[in-house]
Design goal:
The complex is a heterodimer. Chain A contains 1 helix and 19 strands. Chain A is mainly beta. Chain B is α+β, with helices and mostly antiparallel strands. Chain B is built from 12 helices and 17 strands. Chain B has helices at residues 2-81, 83-90, 97-109, 116-119, 143-146, 151-155, 230-246, 288-385, 391-421, 434-447, 470-486, 541-551, and strands at residues 125-131, 137-138, 167-173, 176-186, 193-201, 214-219, 222-224, 251-258, 261-269, 279-286, 430-433, 455-459, 465-468, 493-500, 504-512, 555-562, 565-573. Chain B has a 5-stranded antiparallel beta sheet. The mean pLDDT of chain B is 80. Classes of the chains: A mainly beta, B alpha+beta. The A-B interface holds A 49-52, 113-117, 120, 145, 147-149, 151-153, 155 and B 81-84, 86-88, 90-93, 96, 187-190, 192.
């Protein structure tokens, strides 16, 4: 019933001209764990493991609106590059069904694989010039740990989400999600492989909601 | 004498027996001691040898094990570094763990088990398993790839927790024993202990180069010793279990009887400090050859002891004979000596008795004589005082009185001598001025009515003191001076000299006149000169003087009597501290 209702709501929204209704906006701040090192200005960050918990360093969070959203027909291809024996980006949030390709930008072999229950795959060894660029479709929501069989220290994360509405915070934890559909949802913040914070939100068209996730 | 001889012979015989017994006892003791020491030595040597063999074989086994550990440690480190292993453990892809490890451990598992003589030296594993983070075995998806084990055996691989260092264990499975090595796997990422690899091998067996040595493993109350079976194994297992329960040390040895044969059993903990149940290497060394050696030695020592005893018998016989000869002689001599001594003692006793009797007689006689002499003297004196006798009578009376006085003097001398002989004379020693004493007596000498015309020479310092009783000193000096005057010739001389040397004072009195022949013993009591002389003496003066000098610790002797010169010398003890000038 609810699913039907939502669908009908969506159908109504789709008739409203976009120029008139820009959707709801959520902005706020996620309280990030204390960084072990001084804040870095550079965009680069990496995946670290501490007591079996994977997180980014410096700490970042992925804020997303949880709910049942219609699956789009096609999704743009995403990319996790291997450059200087690291994954770039180290943490990639994607919507379920997204194809991610793994271009090798190093002068050496890589062998990207994952034993994560969310998605198991093994791309085998490949060189930079290998075409087509190896890619994987992530069809289940969850966290995927990327590893390289040749370079044991390499770690990457792909956060597969059931929603198209997600954004990464900056290093201070600030985020802004816009063009959100109005309604009752749960706003979630993924902080590390074991920590996700959440808050129920009620979104109204044209409104900007301020939500802090401490 | 024949009875004494028999006793003596018996005594010598018993001495010989005792000597012989003593030698035999010493020989027997030495033999027994030698036997005991040799046996102890053999036992200690045998045990030492067997212990060394055991240690050597164990250490060679340990070398192989170390090789295994080193190889396995490399393997495990490589495994732990493998991203796929990490991914399988950390990303909950346990089903992918064994397949991921398969390539890495392929060489351990590949091929059939090698023949037993090579198995001990090879790295060939029978099985392997991984432990999860609680120490439990992770079930393999396909047991045939990792070595099949029944559930009970596999359960023994689990540990109460993940070990942080290599563990060695021995587990039993259907009559066989596996040696397992558990190696921890640390995450290369976090350094955390994430898993452990358990690899099972065929246990190393000690090389039984020496025949009859049996080795096995004891673990968890079970003995794995293929060479033994049935009740012998059961009873041995019980003994080992009891011994191990009572022993704290990791290795030890004791004697056991296996099927009636004595054996030396060594045991050593194979996995000290392991999380696995304690397992012991058991080694049985047959003592048969050692016992035979001991038997042989026992015979040898016994034979040597018998020979020694025989030798001792002969030697002691000779020694006893040789030694008893002088003893026999000694016994004879001592018998003669005793008889002689008895005779001498009897003679001495009778002499002493006689002497005492004579001296007592002398004393009694003197006393008996003294009283009438006093009466006689007083009577003569009172007659001389009367008037009216003819002058010839007075002269006669005077002569009689003189003779009476002489007789009184003789009696007094005799009395003194006899008292001295009886030991009744005590000396009250005081310093006596000898110089003055001599001077006084020389004065008296000159005043005597019948003194011949002699010249007197004095050579002594004044104030020479001697230690003694004055009246006896006086007697000595008087005697000598009177003799010097009495036996002088007309126109002769008397020389008196004295000299002190600090300790003694020597008084010399010499006179001219007829000499004394050397054969005459002038110091003898009642001696009378053989040469006729005008001088008269009663023959006890010199004897008395000498006795008195000796009583004072001094001496009187004749030092010279030749060529018209006779000289006597008296030595006195100097009075201490008085003769300042000697």
């Amino acid at each position: 019933m609810r699913r039907l209702g939502l669908l009908s709501l969506n159908a109504i929204f789709s008739f409203i001209p976009a120029s008139l209704l820009t959707g709801a906006t959520v902005e706020g701040r996620v309280e990030l764990p204390k960084s072990r090192s001084a804040p870095v200005q550079a965009k680069r960050y990496e995946i670290v493991t501490k007591a079996g918990v994977l997180s980014t360093q410096p700490p970042l969070a992925v804020v997303y609106l949880d709910g049942n959203f219609p699956r789009p027909a096609s999704l743009p291809m995403k990319e996790v590059r291997q450059k200087d024996l690291t994954f770039i980006p180290a943490l990639l949030p994607i919507e379920v069904g997204t194809r991610v390709q793994f271009p090798n930008l190093d002068d050496t072999y890589h062998n990207i694989f994952s034993y994560s229950p969310t998605k198991r795959f093994d791309l085998g060894r490949y060189r930079p010039e290998e075409r087509p660029i190896p890619s994987v479709v992530f069809d289940t929501a969850g966290l995927v740990t990327l590893r390289c069989d040749i370079h044991e220290h390499m770690r990457g994360l792909i956060l597969v989400l059931n929603t198209p509405y997600f954004v990464m915070t900056d290093t201070t934890g600030r985020f802004r999600l816009d063009k959100l559909p109005p309604g009752h949802y749960t706003l979630k913040a993924w902080i590390d492989s074991r920590t996700t914070r959440q808050k129920p939100v009620e979104l109204k068209d044209g409104q900007t909601l301020h939500v802090d996730l401490p | 004498m024949s009875a004494a001889g028999a006793t003596r012979n018996k005594g010598v015989a018993s001495f010989r027996t005792r000597l012989f017994t003593a030698i035999m006892v010493i020989v027997a003791t030495l033999t027994a001691l030698g036997f005991y020491l040799a046996q102890r030595r053999v036992t200690a040597d045998a045990e030492q040898n067997l212990r060394q063999t055991f240690q050597t074989e164990l250490s060679s086994m340990h070398k192989v094990e170390e090789l295994r550990y080193a190889a396995l440690a490399d393997r495990c480190n490589a495994l732990a570094a493998k991203p796929r292993i990490h991914a399988a453990i950390e990303d909950d892809a346990i089903d992918l763990l064994y397949p991921s490890a398969k390539d890495e451990l392929r060489d351990l598992m590949e091929g059939d088990e090698p023949p037993p003589e090579q198995a001990a030296r090879s790295l060939h594993a029978r099985f392997y398993r991984f432990l999860n983070n609680t120490g439990a075995v992770i079930k393999p998806p396909n047991a045939s790839d990792v070595g099949e084990l029944d559930a009970a055996t596999e359960a023994q691989l689990s540990l109460p927790k993940l070990p942080d260092m290599q563990q060695i264990g021995y587990i039993q499975s259907a009559g066989d024993i596996h040696e397992v090595i558990t190696v921890p796997i640390f995450s290369t990422d976090t350094g955390d202990l994430v898993s452990a690899l358990v690899i099972g091998f065929k246990p190393l067996e000690l090389e039984n180069r020496r025949t009859g040595i049996q080795s096995g493993i004891w673990v968890g109350g079970h003995l794995h010793l293929p060479a033994l079976a049935g009740s012998a194994k059961t009873s041995l297992n019980e003994q080992i279990t009891t011994a191990l329960a009572n022993s704290d040390s990791e290795q030890n040895y004791f004697r056991v009887e296996v099927a009636g044969a004595p054996q030396l059993l060594f045991h050593k903990r194979l996995n000290p400090g392991s999380l696995f149940p304690p397992a012991y290497e058991i080694c049985l060394y047959p003592l048969a050859s050692w016992t035979a050696q001991l038997h042989r030695l026992r015979w040898q020592i016994g034979g040597a002891g018998v020979l020694l005893l025989l030798g001792g018998f002969v030697a002691s016989h000779f020694v006893a004979l040789n030694m008893s000869a002088p003893v026999k002689k000694l016994a004879l001599d001592s018998e003669e000596n005793r008889a002689e001594r008895e005779r001498a003692e009897a003679a001495l006793a009778s002499t002493a008795e006689e002497l005492e009797r004579s001296s007592r007689y002398s004393a009694d006689a003197s006393h008996q004589l003294k009283s009438p002499m006093t009466v006689l003297r007083i009577g003569l004196e009172s007659l001389l005082e009367r008037e009216g006798f003819k002058p010839e009578i007075y002269e006669e009376l005077s002569t009689l009185l003189h003779q009476t006085r002489r007789l009184t003097g003789v009696i007094e001398d005799l009395l003194l001598l006899s008292r001295m002989d009886a030991g009744h004379v005590q000396i009250a020693s005081t310093p006596v001025n000898l110089s003055r004493l001599v001077d006084e007596w020389l004065d008296d000498l000159g005043a005597l009515p019948d003194s011949p015309d002699v010249k007197i020479e004095k050579e002594f310092p004044p104030g020479l003191f001697v230690a003694g009783e004055k009246r006896y000193m006086s007697l000595i000096v008087q005697n000598l001076l009177e003799n010097a005057r009495k036996y002088n010739r007309l126109g002769g001389r008397i020389r008196v000299s004295a000299l002190g040397n600090g300790k003694d004072v020597v008084l010399k009195i010499g006179n001219t006149g007829p000499t004394i022949p050397p054969s005459e013993n002038i110091f003898e009591r009642f001696h009378h000169s053989s040469t006729p002389s005008a001088a008269s003496g009663h023959g006890i003066g010199l004897n008395l003087a000498r006795e008195l000098a000796r009583l004072h610790g001094g001496e009187l002797r004749l030092v010279y009597s030749e060529d018209d010169w006779t000289e006597f010398e008296v030595r006195f003890s100097a009075a201490n501290g008085v003769n300042a000038v000697a």
